[in-house]
Amino acid sequence: MALASSPSLSKLSLVLLFFLSLSSSHPSHDPTYPPQSHAERLVRSLNLYPKDSVNIIESDHAGHGFVPGEIVEKKFSFLGDSGPSVEDLGHHAGYYSLPHSISARMFYFFFESRISKDDPVVIWLTGGPGCGSEIALFYENGPFHIANNMSLTWNDYGWDQASNIIFVDQPTGTGFSYSSNDTDIRQDEAGVSNDLYDFLQEFFKAHLDFISNDFYIFGESYAGHYVPALASRVNQGNKQNQGLHINLKGFAIGNGLTNPAIQYQAYPDFALDKGVITKTEYETQGGESCADALDICENILYRILVFTDNINYYDIRKKCEGYLCYNFTNVEKLLNEQKVKRALGVRDDLEYDLCSLKVHAAMMQDWMRNLEVGIPALLEDGIKLLVYAGEEDLICNWLGNSRWVQAMQWSGQKGFEISPTVKFVVDGAEAGSLNSYGPLTFLKVHGAGHMVPMDQPKVALQMLTSWTGGKLNASSSASCDLMEPDRLNSPTTFEMPLEVLGHELQFSQDPNSKHLGTTVWDASLVFAKFLERNCRRGRFSPAKLKGKRVIELGAGCGVSGFGMALLGCNVIVTDQKEVLPLLGRNVERNISRVMQKNPESFGSIKVAELQWGDESHIKAVGPPFDYIIGTDVVYVEHLLEPLLQTILSLSGHRTTILLGYEIRSTSVHDKMLQMWKRYFDVKTVSKSKMDETFQHPSIELFIMGFKHSAECTENSGETTVEKVDVETVVDDKSSEGSVVAEEGTGLVEENVEDHDKSISQNAKLSEWEARRYGAMAARILRDIKIS
């Protein structure tokens, strides 16, 4: 796996990791060479690696004048006499003497904003590990580009147009950072993040004008390790009042390596989808079994490295040309000029190399660490996270990054998982796709590889300004358009007016809350308007529903439950404890509105806490119920079983279940149907029976009732489905197994898929039992005409 900002380091990492794994699992390799020797031989044979290993200056004077914790900084200009004065330009270069070292000095650039000193302060960390930040400075998002004649030109999309930006060479031994003792080279994120935190403390002391500015941490590639580690360290320092308070607002990872175990497993899927490997290669190299054997994933990647036609793993649209797959040699030429080093305050005898093999090797024990584990605590503290990825990168591809973001466990996980995907629009053109919920945002960037600011500079600058300005989310019309503009609900307003059954209702919502239940979701609107359309006659008429006991699961803002109460039902709306205050306010407000207009037809509605699977909560609401309803309660697989068990515990033999939800995951949907059909006949409501406006192709409504007469006792021993004779279930006598309905009340299409056509193959049903299935279906679909 290769993860540096420098493509050479990325390939090195891929090769090195491969050899480390193969050295133990493939004894046929030459035993005379240790794993690192194998890696170095291959890397050098492919001409992928820099010539010098690390900046360890062994002269007697290397540690001379070392003062721990000291910053020595100077202003400079790359523009000579042709540009603004050094004072006006606001460009700085300096060294920070690391206090927890023998003689380590950390080199950095600081470029003040071209627009305003009030812009956020951004620190940029390049990956590797062991690659200098100057790759980003001169080829991605710094103020300048290097022309072929070695002259510098202004970068029109440099991030100094929207921030005061710091570029740091770290860890020690990277770029212009150096020491006189190789024990100063760090080997883990604790050492790296402590050094950076110490640096930031002294930096802000030297630049007190910026201490109150918003502060953001950015990085790419292996900085997927550095960035969250530093964010956690800064947050810890702030909480414990360690030195100056740093105004940390967010951290961002671009095409990063953060959770290796998950990201490795995405390689074959991404490579197959992009045509990098064939289906046959995918299957023969492990493909679908990759999740069970990490070395298979590495083996696939190695085969890609060796046998593809010199593909550039940082941008699969391109070939790998030059000793770094990109031609970055001008950076080394420029920074090794003596006049440049003197202008920056760098030692004459210090050689600049893009990447350090020794630093890289020292950090190898850190490689497979999962740095995602510290992120949830930051999100809970309200610190924003942006994960962005160019879609053409293989090494740290968008798919692997998306998967670890989706798998991350935090209070907003459900909300993020079902968040709408929106277009990220720049200058009227779609530049990417975006998901966001609360403090978490994921952006896939079109037309970009591993280094988004290099491949899509305008898009990257817009991303920076939108995100730091709080506008990089689904509700920002300035930079984002909904992928599905016909969708009913964008959770951007805090008051949702809704006219239902002649009543003007008002539902409060708080989409910025950490809890999903505080947003009005689309399926609840579809459900309420479905009731309105079908209430004149049949099973959903007030005459049939008046006095029926109804419980709503995951009620959220209470829209669906209120619709049933308007039809005369006695409703209990339930949700988790944190959602109840908002739910209660909505109930009280709308009861008042209804009572002022037409109280006679209204049933009742009250609020109760119900955590799915909690026996005490279930007992407290007093099952069984005539109807169990829920909208958008199906979204993640691990909640399907608790939901099913709760429904069974709340049911009696005459209970009808009405569920509506948006199908966001076909795998979850299929799993749900598989579980439900063990107990219920499942029918899908026809779109023609829904409100003409309030419907959407991805939103389905289901009507379910218990299948058959066999007693079935659940795990709790409390839920029993009794035998019921067909005559007691169906008012309209009919031939056995038929469905009888009143004219004009059909809800299910004739050709709609019956999700329970087949009984489990292991089930042995008598003819009588098979006929009872039809009878129960008639009970469920009473008053329904199949049109």
UniProtKB/TrEMBL annotation:
State the source organism's domain of life.
Eukaryota
GO-annotated molecular function = serine-type carboxypeptidase activity
Entry-linked InterPro entries: AB_hydrolase_fold, Methyltransf_16, Peptidase_S10, SAM-dependent_MTases_sf, Ser_caboxypep_his_AS, Ser_caboxypep_ser_AS
Keywords associated with the record: Carboxypeptidase, Glycoprotein, Hydrolase, Protease, Secreted, Signal
Predominantly, its location class is secreted
Q: Name one GO biological process term.
A: proteolysis
Q: Where in the cell is it found?
A: Secreted
Show the Gene3D superfamilies listed in the entry. Answer: alpha/beta hydrolase, Vaccinia Virus protein VP39
Of the GO CC terms on this record, one is: extracellular region
Query: Which Pfam families did the record assign?
Result: Methyltransf_16 (PF10294), Peptidase_S10 (PF00450)
Q: Tell me where the signal peptide lies.
A: 1-25
Q: Which residues form a coiled coil?
A: none
* Family to which the UniProt record says this protein belongs: Belongs to the peptidase S10 family.
Q: Which PANTHER family match?
A: CARBOXYPEPTIDASE, SERINE PROTEASE FAMILY S10 SERINE CARBOXYPEPTIDASE
Please identify the protein, giving its name as recorded.
Answer: Carboxypeptidase
Supply the source organism for this entry: Sphenostylis stenocarpa
